[in-house]
Amino acid sequence: MGKCLIIGCGGVASVAIHKCVQNSEVFDEIMIASRTKSKCDALKEKLDGTSSTKISTAKVDADNVDELIELINGFKPDVVLNLALPYQDLTIMDACLATKTNYVDTANYEPEDTAKFEYKWQWAYRDKFKEAGITALLGSGFDPGVTGVFSAYALKHEFDEINYIDILDCNAGDHGYPFATNFNPEINIREVSANGSYWEDGHWVETKPMEIKRVYDFPEVGKRDMYLLHHEEIESLALNIPGIKRIRFFMTFGESYLTHLRCLEDVGMTSIEPIEFEGKKIVPLQFLKAVLPDPASLGPRTVGKTNIGCIFKGKKDGKDKTYYLYNVCDHQECYKEVDSQAVSYTTGVPAMIGAMMIMTGKWNKPGVYNIEEFDPDPFMDALNKWGLPWQESRSPEMVD
Ligand code: NDP
Question: Is the pLDDT of residue 115 over 70?
Answer without folding.
Answer: no
